[in-house]
Amino acid sequence: MSVNKRIGRPSGFRSVPVLTEPDVEHYPEFREFLVKAFGLGEDPLGEPGVLDVNGRCYELIFVGRSGQAFPAAVEIASLVEGLEPLDTEQTDRDLWEIMEWLVEGVGGRWTIDALRTTAKIYRVIPEGVE
User: Fold this and answer.
1) What is this structure's pTM?
2) pLDDT of residue 95
3) I need a surface site. Which of 13, 59, 108, 124 has the fewest CB within 10 A?
4) What total of structural domains would you count in the chain?
5) 56-101 per-position pLDDT tens digit
6) Could you list the residue range(s) of the whole structural domain that residue 36 is in?
């Protein structure tokens, strides 16, 4: 797994929405991890978070809602160079790596084995992921 935080958004790339989690507070541990990982406690109105997944970039847009802890939701967008087409199969594999990075970062009762087992039950695990 090669998911790393990146400083700044690369220029010449467009944002293509690929995944939305409308309720990050469903499990507070996930919200807490995102706040810590992206410094949202110090600068909640800063630039979106950017992750590098094996050389491809993804932007995490944190959404606030009145009366809810920040972030209330997160949207993930693939950053695609110019007008190039989005490789949806690669994006699915990259999103899986982001999910594993997130679960590993949260830790505790959250494990990659449990994530993979759940994905196999619901048949949503990308091809090539064991």
Assistant:
1) 0.89
2) 94
3) 108
4) 1
5) 999 999 999 999 999 999 999 999 999 999 999 999 999 999 999 9
6) 3-122
